[in-house]
Amino acid sequence: MNMTSLSLLLWIVLGISLQILLWLGIGFWRHWGEYRELRTGLQPAATGVASHEFNASSLSEPALVPAWNGFRSFRVERKEIEDGARSVCSFYLAPEDGQPLSGFLPGQFLTFRLDVPTPDGRTEQLMRCYSLSDAPGKEFYRVSIKRVSAPAGSALPPGRSSNHFHDHVRVGDTLQVRAPGGHFHLDRSDAPVVLIGGGIGITPALSMLNWCLAEQPGREVWLYYGVRNGSEIIKRADLEALAAAHPNFQLRLCFSAPQPEDQIGRDYQHKGRVDVRLLRAELPLKPYHFYICGPTPMMEGLVTGLDEWGVPDAHIHYEAFGPASIKRSPAAAGKDAAAVLQSDIVVTFAKSGKQLSWQPGMGSLLEFAEANGVSVDSGCRVGGCGSCQTTIKSGEVAYSQAPDFDPEPGSCLLCTCTPKTNVTLEA
């Protein structure tokens, strides 16, 4: 009897164990299938951008429309003044051929080929790059351009391209535009983000912010927007509406020289410039990714300060008005200089008949050429337009960051490279 009861108990235990194993097996198989499906959905598209920029979930994106080669005609559909000082104007652009727009990554820019009138009645062709200031997925591209005035007390002229846009580009006009490009763009992970824009450097941050809040409403986002006073804020109403609608979005307006009518707590949150001390005082201890764009002095202070704070280099993303001019901390600068194999390099400009000694710290080859009276065509000065492309007759160059314009084999973009060995250039 006892043996029979024991056998029955063993059979019951065996049956229960089999059911548990079967349940676990079914659950594992279901989760494995979901995992495989997720991994398949995360494979980056062949966009030419490094795959680490796409380390995230399968979020919705605009339809994949191939980028076009060369320049494409766009019609100006709308112009809007964006600030109280009337110094920033947004231009809404639609393709003249009526075909769909290519998608882009939030933070990227457009390159324009402009025919700018000269005082003698002729026209001169300029190449300039301007950040897209709205999220992808719209029926238009938008760029927001600040009029650059001549510096007070300086003989330097006002910005030719920005003033041309403000004064001569009308609704209905046609512009020649290269497809969106640029390595400065928001990733698609769920990592918390700090966006920092100084002055008109807010434009790529607006694109990133609008995309992130539409596609990743649960992602933590901080925006630090630094200007002198309330008259320089663009899209204030839109920013405040977004902050009210999204609890995960924190807006911080920082005024370095507020006007008497600007009230702290109502019109802005902080008096002073955006700096690392402010970030350390406000941000919780989290693995933030920092995306920064603005004037060079602001950039140098923030990038160096984040380095010294211990923020990993991979978490600091920036686009300055001339990225090669940003001075990094000694450790970071040492990494950038590691590609230079010689400390005293001879650069030969073949057409100009000049042979000159170059040393680290003398800037890009474009800056070096200009400082020594060598005439070189240039446009954007950030590796986007290709105007300064020059043939390398011998030797090697190194790039501090990959240029957005792909130079032809055997040539280089002088604005973003330095000599790696003795080099001879056809300039």
Report a brief summary of the structure.
The chain has helices at 2-41, 160-168, 202-215, 236-245, 276-282, 296-309, 330-337, 365-371; strands at residues 71-81, 88-95, 109-117, 123-131, 141-146, 174-181, 193-198, 221-227, 249-255, 270-271, 289-294, 316-320, 345-349, 354-358, 389-394, 397-399, 411-413, 417-419, 423-425.
What does this entry look like structurally?
The chain has helices spanning 2-41, 160-168, 202-215, 236-245, 276-282, 296-309, 330-337, 365-371; strands at residues 71-81, 88-95, 109-117, 123-131, 141-146, 174-181, 193-198, 221-227, 249-255, 270-271, 289-294, 316-320, 345-349, 354-358, 389-394, 397-399, 411-413, 417-419, 423-425. The protein is an alpha/beta fold and 427 residues long. Residues 31-63 and 333-341 have low confidence and may be disordered. The chain starts with a helix and ends with a strand. The radius of gyration is 27 Å and the shape is globular. The protein has eight helices and 19 strands. The relative contact order is 0.09. The protein has a six-stranded antiparallel beta sheet with strand order 4-3-6-1-2-5, covered by helices on one side. Strands 10-9-8-7-11-12 form a six-stranded parallel beta sheet, with helices on both faces. It has three domains: 71-149 and 158-181, Elongation Factor Tu (Ef-tu), domain 3, CATH 2.40.30.10; 193-336, Rossmann fold (3-Layer(aba) Sandwich); 345-425, Roll (Ubiquitin-like (UB roll)), CATH 3.10.20.30.
Give descriptors for this structure.
427 residues; Rossmann fold; Ubiquitin-like (UB roll); 6-stranded antiparallel β-sheet; 6-stranded parallel β-sheet; 8 helices; 19 strands; 26% helix
